[in-house]
Design goal:
Layout: E1 2-3, H1 4-7, H2 16-27, E2 34-35, H3 39-103
Antiparallel strand pairs: 1-2
């Protein structure tokens, strides 16, 4: 395994793919002082980092859904109550309208 930043000290000897690999691993916050040298090791590390992102994303989405679901339940109860109130007010308006028609 190569050492991270110390392996990139001599920039003239760094290939484009080495620089790309180093940048990708730093951006995924997996960057450490060591990384694999072989192609197979890099492929394995790439798949492991994608898997880690997927698991992190899944856990975050599940937690967000749980929190939004609770909020949605509360708001749906409010909506039901508001609909009942609107129906009650609508029936009152209808009654007043009927009374007014009878008086005319």
């Amino acid at each position: 395994m190569q050492q991270g930043c110390t392996a990139l000290k001599d920039l003239a000897s760094v290939s484009y793919w080495d620089a790309f690999w180093w940048t990708a691993m730093i951006m995924t916050t997996i960057g450490s002082d060591y990384w694999p040298e072989t192609f197979e090791g890099r492929i394995l590390t790439f798949f492991l980092s994608v898997y880690a992102f997927a698991i992190f994303g899944y856990i975050t989405a599940a937690l967000a859904s749980l929190l939004i679901g609770k909020e949605k339940e509360e708001s749906s109860k409010e909506i039901v109550e508001l609909r009942k109130e609107v129906q009650r007010l609508s029936s009152e308006i209808s009654r007043f309208s009927e009374k007014e028609k009878k008086q005319i």
